[in-house]
Every structure is written in structure tokens, then in C-alpha cells.
Amino acid sequence: MPAVRNAIVVGAGIGGLTAAIGLRRAGVETTVLERRSTPDRLLTGGGFMLWHNAVLALRELKLDQAVADAGVEIVYHEFRSDRDRRLARWDVAPEAERHGAPALGLRRSALNAVLMEAAGDVRLGARCASFDQDEDGVTVTLDGGETLRADVLVGADGIRSTVRDGMRKGHDLPLRYAGYTAWQAITRLPGEETVPTGTFFNLWGRGGLRFLYMRLNEDEVYWDAITADGAGASFDMLANGRRDVLLDAYRDWPEPVPRILASTAEDAILPIGIFDRPPDRCGGWGHGRVVLLGDAAHPMTLNLSQGAGQAIEDAVALVRLLSEHERVPAAIRAYEDLRLERVAGMVGTAWTIGAMGRWRGRLRCAGRDLFMRAFFDRVGRKQSYQQMMDVRF
């Protein structure tokens, strides 16, 4: 890797750890800085999907099997209505065979554990306060005044990135709020008859409500209740806890939705406001010897289950291009040229799908369900896979 002898990665999330693994395996002395102070705070989070493209990217680092062993293979993606009508059912297994990689459901903490083990040392409790760069390198200053020097600085520190803010000197367009909240949790709910292993369920309802769920293992189920602001405005969060509010909102939904909610501990439910950066607000991802990846560069809504996958693709592409170019700025420009169009398409598609989930009127939602029944099994599936598997790393 002629351009880079040493690197600093800020953020020990999925993208940052993947980049650190790739850099270290390429012979680059790499320091990973993470503001969270203890390992247990890194190994948190709910469940999520890793589609075939993400598994193929992980294969570049020989991590795909370890990640597959930590999760469960998804063989069906089923779309249903809140009146228990099937809207579409995608057979994922033939696509896994075609592309040579499975789709996986797993705990976020399980993926982080695999990446942490492969990445090696991470400096916990180390927050990047600022940085300066010159023609020869980047100097990072930590809280407390310690300075570190490297050939390249990789900002993988999330949606409210300190590195992004420093690169843009505080002049950045705001994040775009999607208009809905994702209430996420993992609950203990054994029983294949309740939630069968291998199917990712994607339920669309009236009144601005959606519900996603899948089995993570023989004992646990991950779920995600997505509530548009118009629905959430009626929630009485003063008189009721999160579980009771959601139980009331989804009281007329088909089983196992009420049972999943009832089985969940109150303190396991985490509400997350959903934001993204539309392509015209993303701007460049790099300047000189500083570069962004994952949510620091291009946060997207959850509707394609591609946030983690695109961060992994970013990291693999960046490491390869740094190894191919003799100058860091040239490698970063090549990385942007390779990745921008693909990610912009993902951001836009995810936003459009999420906007459909905010619809509240009965007639409009009925039309949406009719459209899904007519087109999702063939046209929607084909278009989704075309976009997903146009991999660029």
C-alpha cells in the first residue's frame, strides 16, 4: 500500500471496524479511536438484515463465514398487510445460490463481536476533538490534548460525525427527518409456530404504521415497529409506557404482532427517530487526506436494510483504492467516484419506500396494498435485486 503507512479510524462501528481490518491486513499500522469507554457499550443494538451484497463484501476480508455462523439465513422475505393478507413473498434462497452468498438476520452485537475480534486493539474512551492536515499527513487531537499523526484519517463515527463536522468546518446542510420513528427491540419468544426461522416479515398497515420481525435464534425475535408522526401524535407517553402505547396502537393487528409486543420487556424497547442525507446534501465524502464512510458520509433510512451493507462496501472499496494509488487524495477521489452514484440510489429508494409507509388514509393504503400484490413479487423483486447486486467495491 504505497500511499499509506499508517491510518487513524474514528469510530468502532460496523464500517470503522471493517475498514480497520482491511487496513491492518494490508500492512497499514492502524489506530481505531472509539469515544465509548467500555466494550459492553460497543456490543449493543437490536437485530438487522445483511443482504447478499454485504456478505460478498465481507468475503473480501474472509469474514463471511464467521458472520454467517453468528446469524440465521433468511430464505423468504414476506410482505403482508395489517389484515393478515399476503402482499408478496420473495424466495431468497435461489438468489443466495445465484450470487453465491446468503442473506442473514442477526444481532447487531453479534456482527460487532466478530468484527471486534478480527480488528484487534481499539482505543476505548478516546474521542476525536479536532484534526488538522497538511500535504504530508493528518494530526488528530483527542479530548485531553493528546495528538496522533497518520497518513490518512477515516471518519466512521456515525450520523453526527465529528470528523464530518471538522472537514466541513461546521458548514453543512442539516439532516433530513423522515417523519417516523422506529421502535426496536429483541424479545425472548421461543416457538417456531409463533415466528418461523428463516422468514423476514414486513407488515404494512393503515394509519401510518408498519411492523417488521424475524427470528434471530431458537429463543429470540427481533422486531421493529415503525410509526409515522401522525400516528405517534396520539401516543400518551405520560400515562403509559412504551410497550403499552405500542400494544394499543397495534391492538387490531394479526398475530403474532400483539404477542411479540406483549412478550417484550419495557426497557428493551428503543425508539429511534429516522434521518438521512439526500444526495444533494451529502456533498463530497473526502478532502485531502480525510475521508468519510457509512453513516458519516451517507446516512439512509432503514427501508432497504442497507445501511450496514453500504458501510461495509465503503470500507472494502476504500482499502482497495488506497492500496492501488500512490497518493491518498487520488485514492479518495477514486473512492467517491466509485461509490457516490450507487449510494445515492440507495438513499433515494429507501426514502421513497419509507414515504409510502407514512400513508394513513384507508383508500390510499388500499391502493398501495393492491399495487404491492400486483407488482412486488415480480417487478419489485427484480428491481430490488438489480439495485442491490450492482456491487461497487
Automatic annotation (TrEMBL):
Q: Which InterPro entries match?
A: FAD-bd (IPR002938), FAD-dep_Monooxygenase_BioMet (IPR050493), FAD/NAD-bd_sf (IPR036188)
Every FAD-binding domain range: 7-165, 281-347
The keyword Oxidoreductase appears for this protein: yes
Instruction: Give the UniProt keywords, A-Z.
Output: Monooxygenase, Oxidoreductase
Q: Which domain of life is it from?
A: Bacteria
The Swiss-Prot or TrEMBL record annotates one GO molecular function as: monooxygenase activity
Q: Does the keyword Acyltransferase apply?
A: no
What is this protein's record name? FAD-dependent monooxygenase
User: Which species does this protein come from?
Assistant: Actinomadura yumaensis
